[in-house]
Design brief:
Elements: H1 22-73, E1 77-84, E2 87-93, E3 100-101, E4 109-110, E5 117-123, E6 129-133, E7 137-140, E8 147-148, E9 151-157, E10 162-167, E11 173-176
Antiparallel strand pairs: 1-2, 1-7, 2-5, 3-4, 6-9, 7-8, 9-10, 10-11
């Protein structure tokens, strides 16, 4: 007896399909686009939060460093804020408050015999984070470690996230976030 083999051609049996159909590809593309469109705003918020937190941490560290630098040098040291031309910067320096300026293109320029730039931090306008204060310059005393005047330095992001550093007369820093826009900081 002889058995015939069925090749599957024309007999109604199907062969296994390999690859992906156009409809399956379109469905995956639509699902990916919907997922990405919901995730992108959250990512942008996360990036701004990280930028504001990074600048706020740097500024708080620098304020404490300026205080200890005044004691180490045994001379008054200042932290002075400047803004303009889309850039914000702050300068750590010796000498009078108006002795040093920065325009964001490099280190600060200081005039006068007693004025020396120690450190310049530039925050470009493209970073969308700025530093402002209710005082333009804070002087740290080397003998007592105090600061004059007391003031609040505000680190603000483009979407309103903010951290305030309140520097008291003892030169200590207390950080907070208005309306708790930054969850890592207590509310102001």
């Amino acid at each position: 007896m002889q058995t015939q083999r069925n090749s599957g051609i024309g007999t109604g049996t199907s062969r296994k399909q390999r690859g992906v159909t156009l409809i399956e590809t379109c469905v995956v593309a639509v699902i990916t686009a919907i997922t990405a469109s919901t995730a992108i705003p959250g990512m942008q918020d996360l990036l701004e939060t990280r930028r504001v937190d990074g600048v706020a941490t740097l500024l708080a560290t620098d304020i404490q460093w300026v205080r200890s630098e005044a004691v180490a040098r045994n001379q008054p040291v200042r932290l002075t804020l400047h803004s303009g031309a889309g850039n914000t910067c702050y300068v750590v320096h010796t000498g009078p408050a108006d002795a040093c300026t920065c325009d964001g293109s490099g280190p600060a320029q200081c005039t006068g015999e007693s004025a020396r730039e120690i450190r310049t931090v530039v925050l470009p306008g493209s970073g969308k984070v700025s530093v402002e204060g209710n005082v333009e310059s804070i002087l740290f005393d080397p003998v007592h470690g105090t600061s004059t005047p007391a003031g609040t330095l505000r680190v603000t992001g483009a979407k309103g996230r903010a951290v305030h550093h309140v520097v008291n007369v003892m030169g200590r820093v207390r950080s907070c976030s208005p309306l708790r826009t930054m969850s890592a900081y207590r509310a102001c």
